[in-house]
Amino acid sequence: MDTRYSTGPGDFKRYATADIRREFLIQGAFSPGELRLTYSHVDRMISGGAMPAGKPMVLEGGKELSSAFFLERRELGTINIGGPGLVRADGREYRLGLRDGLYLGRGTKDVSFESLDPANPAKFWICSSPAHASLPAALVPEAEAMATRLGSKEECNERTIRKYFHPEGVPTCQLVMGLTTLEPGSVWNTMPCHTHERRMEVYLYFALPPDALVFHYMGRPDETRHIIVRNEEAVISPSWSIHSGCATRAYSFIWGMAGENQTFSDMDGVAAPLMK
Asked: For tag attachment on the chain, is the N or C end more exposed, with fewer CB atoms within 10 Å?
């Protein structure tokens, strides 16, 4: 498990491109037969990918968690962006098609991931945060996620936001997770931008061809920087930072949040004249 420590805005303003990428960019999350996770000290979020190939992949505790099993003191959400997959959790089986999601609560002991078609392996994107309560598992097919259409052609940001695990749907302890899809011809997300000092966020960008790029903007609103992100790469966004993206074509991204509250609308908007 890769470990990333917290960075404050004072240090961030002195970072060069290589420093920003080293601290905030997650690459290579999906590798056949591997479970690749990144532990961020920002709200103790763990994010990463499981791409089963041939045999089941078991989720285990370790030194980073100092726990007997991974979800002893944690909850987990996963959304599949690959071929058909299967998650086994304490003797129950959950089948996940493309863009289906699954929530597992604190105390779930035995967890494994499988691909149902070796020629088209599943790709499970995982977000896990600490939890102080145990809540039941829930499978959320893409069609049943709470969907909201936003944006306009004029602003190049027509998109559908799907909330999978959130207070209005599947209850969780503190994890909030969903998926946003931009319409063809739209390239902007989360602009006008905002921060939310009460929660951190992780973005996984996907559904991009190899030659496409996303410019992910971050930093204080009056002193922004960017990271160039490619398909199936993710960015850790601390609570003090904006998090917005513009790409060379339409894309999708999974967002996962954890922190002080679960209120999706608890955002500190930034007016365009204040941006630098």
From this structure: C
Instruction: For residue range 239-250, list pLDDT tens digits in order.
Output: 999 999 999 999
> 91: alpha, beta or left, given left = phi > 0 and alpha = psi -120 to 50?
left
Nearest 5°: phi and psi at 274? -85, -10
Helix H, strand E, coil C: the string for 45-61 is CEEEEEECECECEEECC
The tokens describing 124, both together, are: 């499970």
Question: Whole domain around residue 137: which residue ranges?
Answer: 2-274
What are the structure tokens assigned to 102, written together?
A: 């699954």
Q: Which residues pair with 17 in a beta bridge?
A: none
Which residues, in sequence order, are bridge partners of residue 150? 159
Question: CA-to-CA distance for 105 and 94, rounded, in angstroms?
Answer: 14
Determine phi and psi for 237, rounding to 5 degrees.
-115, 110
pTM value > 0.85: yes
DSSP 75-116: EEEEEE-SS-EEEEETTEEEEE-TT-EEEE-TT---EEEEES
Token pair belonging to 71 = 């979800």
118: burial class by Cβ within 10 Å (0-12, 13-18, 19+)? exposed
Q: What is the CATH number of the domain that holds 253?
A: 2.60.120.10
Q: How many domains does the chain have?
A: 1
Neighbours of 29 (CB within 10 A): 24
Backbone angles phi, psi at 78, to 5 degrees: -140, 145
Distance CA 244, CA 237 (A): 10
